[in-house]
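Risk register update: the risk that structure generation would not scale has been downgraded. Supporting records follow, first protein first.
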Amino acid sequence: MSDTNLNNDSTAKMDEQSQQAPKTDAAKTVNAATPEAGNSTKPKTFTRRSVLAMCGCGVAGLIVGGVVAKWGVTEDAIASGRIQLSTTPQKMIVTDRGRCSGCQRCELMCSLRNDGWASQHTARVRVWENYNFGPSVGSGDGIFGNCEFTIKSCKQCADPQCVKYCPVHAIHSDDQTGARVVDASRCIGCGMCHEACPWNMPQVSSETGVSTKCISCGRCAEQCPNGAIKFIDWQDIAQEAINQGVLSTAQLTGDLVRPYQGS
């Protein structure tokens, strides 16, 4: 082979290597910018604690300040008994008896979602108990009164009596939702949680022999045709606080702000 051919071959190889080098470097840059699956971090989310801390008040302060008024939660509505609310670390749960038509769809969908069959007895939200005469005879509520119905649901108490009086410690706080849930593998079906709860919300299922209670899944709110039950994200409450000037965006860290999603 001549010297000319050798030189040509060497030059072609050098050109090929120089063209591949940038591709290799670019690939390294892309890989460096893309986090590995094991190293990916979850974005922070709003919780009850973080929102109340940023607003500098409790839930009552949000009500008085009008932050949750767009969901019907006002001082007058609560004082009249029309609105009842409870909170979990992830949601504010609002029930509006003025919107409830008594259809009991919430009970049907709750039991189908959690038990696999329709059962008013084990439904975690209940209307049927107050359907005829309201909370008590003479209350003026129910189908024989003003046709307003009280929606009974778990309060997810800060000091839950169901947890305190369970003899086998079968009720605990869910790590993700903060709701008090029953561990079916530990529950002995004694019914102490039902007796200890001021509203008798936990119920022992006649089918399984295990206590059942609300896990804050939100199916009742999704299926209510009148919007009588709402599960409100704390992130939405924080956004409303910003809109009303109660909370400044300067108080928020960048990874907590919801990305713009268009008009």
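Supporting record for the second protein:
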Amino acid sequence: MQLSPLGQAALALAQAGLHVFPCNPDNRPGDDKWPKKPACEHGLKDATVDPAQITAWWTGSPNCNIAVRTGDRHWTLDTDVKDGGLESFARMVEKFGPLPETIEVATPSGGSHHWFANGLIEIRNSAKKLAPGMDVRGHGGYVLVPPSTVCGVPYEWRVTEPLAKAPQWLTQAAAAAGNVMDLNGADRQRRQGEDWIKIARDPVPEGQRNHTLASLAGKLFRHMPGDCALMVAELCHSWNLTRCSPPLPHDEVERTLNSIAAAEMRRRGL
């Protein structure tokens, strides 16, 4: 029995290395939430590249939408028409310049998903923290992909390649925004502790210094009181001199610290 177009698309995505799972079929007119909800027992935890499992899912429910788990190879900038997302995107482009060409999906609401390759900084989910109407789908999240539909309107590929890295300013802002997610899980705490040890202990070669500095600064600003900015700066400068090879210029460290500090202030509503 031949798989449905949705099932065939799910298999193709899995063959490309993307972990997929089914979401509910678009069979409730006017309900834009139902087709985005997982249709498998454990949701994104069930995401797989196993063709046998994918075939079983879409043989049993051929009209299920397709979800791709984010955080494995990429994260997604989700711009929504609601809550001023298009205006936020326009202001962002005006201030920082256009985003690099990367995989892009047109969403049923009239918004967009820009996909970016993972870097050294773990990008986590955040909602409306980056800017009004702009969400980040990273570790612990997922996005629907074509040819899924919501209220009869399909997701559509605008750009199918390449999968580009986000510019540094966007990576830093997304990482800072994602720090608001719940960190109570034991696995998350373990991974966070490993991240701290790796950053503090390991030498950082040229090409990885800025990303690692941004990660360190984000962690410090997130977990230290707001009046400790000078201490965070001193720690980061000392780390740069002892761990980066060669050390970043002083002014470049300061620019990164200012960017991360500003993002953290916005997160705290200050």
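The helical segments are 5-15, 51-60, 85-96, 168-178, 186-201, 209-223, 229-243, 250-267. On this basis the risk owner (M.S.) recommends closing the item.
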